[in-house]
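This part of the workshop introduces the protein records we will be handling. Getting from the letters to the tokens is the skill we practise here. The record below serves as our worked example for the rest of this section.

…
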Amino acid sequence: WNNGFLRDCSAGWEGILAIVIGIPVITFLEMTRAVKIWQWSHQQYSLADCLITMHEVINLGMMLIPFIVFASFYIFRYENRAEIVIKSKKRSKIWNQIMIKRIFLACLVSAYIMVFEMLFGMLMSNRYINWDEKVSLFATKTDGVTRSIGFLAVVILCYVVYVLKLCFMFFISALLEKKYVVLGIVIGIPGIEYFCRDVPVKLFYKL
């Protein structure tokens, strides 16, 4: 599968280039927007808050994930799965290889997102985490509740959520060959979630 993954990336270089350029741009713009709101309202935010704000429905569900899934169409466009499955007697093995490549891509892309979130977050904040203080943004989001938690735990949680969400969306894109149907589902899910848009962020803080 690793040779196939490298071959797909080489053939779909436009998708790779889009991810390499697009993710830092989206991350910077959306994080800057959030920080300006916090500064305007005099919120005491930290790097951990910068990481979590990228999981808001608008940032992750309506911006990053649809963009990444669309780019993945170009990466895997020469995969020609239908012909391979017809010729192969081991269909389950072929399907496993297809999913392994997408899981690997999800892990790589999630790590890439985290790198730029950490970089831009450190430039825009002056503390790693301040969730044990009453004046923190965390306390505001949790109605005055504070919590002593390690910054590394927040990083791991954010990374795992990225991987799981991307794996789920890549599974849908592998299962359905019609890209417009896939994009409709990928955009439709956060569209529905937008009606309860405060819930994901609040769940992050409560975890």
